[in-house]
Amino acid sequence: MPHTHLRPYVWMLCGSFSFTLMAVLATTLLRAEQAADWQTVAVFRAGLVALFGAILTRATGGKLVFWPWRLWVRSLAGSFSMICTFFAFSRLPVADVVTLTNTFPIWVALLSWPLYRHFPGANMIAAILVGVLGVALVEQPHFESGNLGVPAALAAALFTAVAMLGLHSLGDLDPRAIVVHFSAVATVVCGVAFLAGTRTHDTARVLEWRVMWKLLGMGATALVGQMFLTLAFAAGAPAKVSVVGLTQIVFALAFDAFLFGHEVNEITLVGTALVIAPTAWLLTRPRTVQPVTALHAEYEIGTPADSTITPTLPR
């Protein structure tokens, strides 16, 4: 690429697109084909990335870690976020889940008040209210029907914010090790959900070729997306790269319209814009960008990192 300063943003676009493909594959299995339960898909999502990540870490000379306790806080919060996300995928269109889970900067801003004494000013409060209004417009039909996917996706954003704030204190650890630890813990947590939850589909269907290739595709697109994110945040300004990552919402809207035939009306577009605008503003705030960006590069369905953290994966 002749213009090297554009590379991080192109890489971020590629990462967002790859993560959107992962979300589309999950939604295809859960809603379009109804080939598996969300617990099964979540286990494969976490397990495949843990396996691929461990192999990649060892092959590149990285060292796996088990402590400190803050690492467990980050991994457990990320694991609960993953469970909520895949439950939401089984109830909502891709674009809705991606839009709702990308409200995590709003949660970071709110949590920074009690945790770090960063009282939100008038501008930040206004941004949060605009974001909430956007969510209400996008999800109004689902609110009326009592769809549990909406609170699940919002809970995923909250857990992502907790994981993000925890990740900010792990700058001394190898990011590859953080990714593997998170994915391994998520595999166990998703496995517990698999065993404890009610399932309506035959688990043996994962052995069908058309189901298996989609599951493998989820793991591959998550890994590829993470590689692009790592390249982007290593070479570009974290705040600017983070905002480019919001294109995942646009990609998801396009896939919903062209693959699944979901209508995108004016109210949905306005609501999406109201979510994207304050989210982008919060991501570029000097005092909140560090904790916010630290995880966006690590989370699948999504992510940014400050200068002390090389981002690595989700979502």
Structure overview:
There is one protein chain. The chain is an all-alpha fold. The chain has 13 helices and no strands. It has one domain (4-296). 72% of the residues lie in helices and 0% in strands. The longest helix has 27 residues, at 209-235. The radius of gyration is 18 Å and the shape is globular.
Overall tally of structural domains: 1
What proportion of the residues form beta strands (DSSP E)?
Answer: under 5%
Number of strands: 0
Overall mean pLDDT stands at 76
Rounded radius of gyration (Å): 18 Å
Largest sheet: none
> Any idea what the shape is?
globular
Termini, distance in Å?
A: 29 Å
Instruction: Give the class from helix and strand content and strand pairing.
Output: mainly alpha
Oligomer: single chain
**SSE string, helix = H, strand = E?**
HHHHHHHHHHHHH
Count of helical segments? 13
- Percent helix range: over 70%
Catalogue the unreliable spans.
Answer: 287-315
Task: Provide keyphrases for this structure.
315 residues; mainly alpha; 13 helices; globular
